[in-house]
DNA sequence: CGGTGGACCTGCTGGC
DNA sequence: TGCCAGCAGGTCCACC
C-alpha cells in the first residue's frame, strides 16, 4: 500500500500529535506480522517520551528518549492512525498505544505484511532493512549520475529497477508506473537502453511526481488512509495506474495493462515508446 | 552474480 | 445469490 508519498503524509500528520507526548500504555493484540512482534514491545515503550517522527524510505521512525527508535512498516494494507481513545476497535487493529494526551495511536494491518521493531540509533543503519537501501529520491545526491550508474548496467525492465529499494528507496508500483508515463518510457523497456538524457529526465521526474503526490496527500486506491484516517487525493490524478482500457489523458491512446512479474504494469502504447 | 517467480496474508471484485 | 479465481500499494527467499 503505502509508498513514499503516503508514508510521508502519515508522518507529517502524526508529528504534531506525537512529538513531545509520553506513552502511557501499549497493547499488542496480534504479534504475527511479517516478523513476530517483540514480546517485550509494550514494556519497552511504556513511559517513553516521543521526541520525533521521521520517514526513511517506506519506514516510519518514531524516535524515543535514550536513542531508542520504534520502526514501523505498513506493508501493503497497513494504517497508522491517531484517534480518540473512545473510537471502537476495528478488526485488524494490532497495536494500540495510549498517549498522555488521552488519545491513541493504532497500528492496523489486515494482511499483516507490515513490520514493527525496536532499534537504537546506532543500530538503525546496520539493520537488514536499512543497510542496503538506495538513496531517497529527495536526497541531494540522487541525480542523473547516480541513477545512470544503475540503469546503464542492468538488463532488467525499467519498472522493476525503479521498484528496487537498493536503487531508489521509496518507490512502489503506482509511482513507478506514473513516473515512466511522464517520461514517455514503457515499463517493459530494458534499463540499459535508456539514454543518459532519458535517465536525467527519469531522476527529475521521480522527484516531481512524488512531490505532487505528497501535495495531494497520497493515493487512496483502497486501503490507504492518512494519520487522521482520511483519504488521499492523488488517485484522481493518476495517468496510467489502474486505468486499463481508459483513454490516455495526454493523447488519443488507450491505457494497456501487462503482467510484469505478477504485478500489473500500466502504460499508454502511444505516448510511451 | 543478476534476474525471476513464488510465498507470505486477508479482502474485495467480477465472472459464471 | 453464491462460489471461486484472480488481483491488490511490499518484501524476502529459493532457485536458475
Description:
The chain is an alpha+beta fold and 273 residues long. It has 2 domains: 4-124, MutM-like, N-terminal (N-terminal domain of MutM-like DNA repair proteins, Alpha-Beta Barrel); 144-267, Helicase, Ruva Protein, domain 3 (Orthogonal Bundle), CATH 1.10.8. The chain is 25% helix and 22% strand. It contains 7 helices and 10 strands. The chain has helices at residues 4-18, 41-45, 121-124, 144-151, 158-163, 173-183, 196-215, and strands at 23-28, 50-56, 59-64, 68-73, 79-84, 93-99, 103-108, 115-120, 256-260, 263-267. The strands form 3 sheets. It has a 4-stranded antiparallel β-sheet. Strand 9 (256-260) and strand 10 (263-267) form a beta hairpin. Helix 6 (173-183) crosses helix 7 (196-215). The longest helix is centred in the C-terminal third of the chain and has 20 residues, at 196-215. The two termini are 28 Å apart. The model has no long low-confidence stretch (mean pLDDT 96). The protein binds a DNA duplex (16 and 16 nucleotides) through helix 6.
